[in-house]
Amino acid sequence: MKLLLTSGGVTNPTIHTALVDMLGKPVEECHALVIPTAQWGHPMCGPASVRSLVAGGSDSRYLAGLGWASVGVLELTALPTIGVERWGAWVREADVLLVDGGDATYLSHWMRASGLAEVLPSLPDTVWVGVSAGSMVMTPRIGASFVEWHGAADDRALGVVDFSVFPHLDAFPENTLEHAERWAVDIDGPAYAIDEQTAIAVEGGSVRVVSEGRWVQLA
Questions:
Q1: Radius of gyration, alpha carbons of the chain
Q2: HSE of 204 in the Cβ direction (CA atoms, 13 Å)?
Q3: Res 190 pLDDT > 90
């Protein structure tokens, strides 16, 4: 897949341009599926935040509210009960998957349990736009400090890319560069700290940072 890994979504023109380049056509001509699943694994999220995400209102203006031709919801916890022969078509017909934040280990679990993780390699033209945990799920490890789901065995995620992501740099008191540097020591691998105005674009084996904000390559 083509990956646009963000901290806060498509928050500025530079990231928006990278998204359109990946899509190969304007956002207004593209059909999106929103994946809210990671929210259920995080104690700060719940029904109200999921509704805000999928409604495409001001709170989700950087993701579901970008002006897509259509927006649907793909809830991964439901997929095992209906079978890939049904939901697989929905995924193949989408131009972009919009994957929100929450807990990345919970999202990773349901990506495997639902079968979506197995389907993704067959979608070379589909764009994955991750926000926070929706980006971290594609990395090898997220770091113990980001694990909120009590069912997680450890901090491992899918490992689709070979680097880890520390999101929300400077956005919260605990998300300082000093914290990111300590986090990176525990990760013990390539890593980036990114703020809300930064994304990492992964396409065809190429990795590039697109940003109008602050980011640091930690290893």
A1: 16
A2: 2
A3: yes
Place of tokens 């991750």: 130
Tell me which DSSP letter residue 170 carries: T
CA dihedral 8, 13, 18, 21 (to 10 degrees): 140
188: left (phi over 0), alpha (psi -120 to 50) or beta: left
The β-bridge relationship of strands 127-131 and 70-73 is unpaired
Instruction: Tell whether pTM > 0.85.
Output: yes
Report in angstroms the alpha-carbon separations of 145 from 148, 154, 174, 182, 183. 8, 11, 10, 11, 8
Cross-strand bridge partners of residue 217: 192
What is the C-alpha separation between 73 and 87, in angstroms, rounded? Answer: 11
- The single-letter DSSP state of residue 156 is B
Residue 140, Cβ neighbours under 10 Å: how many?
A: 19
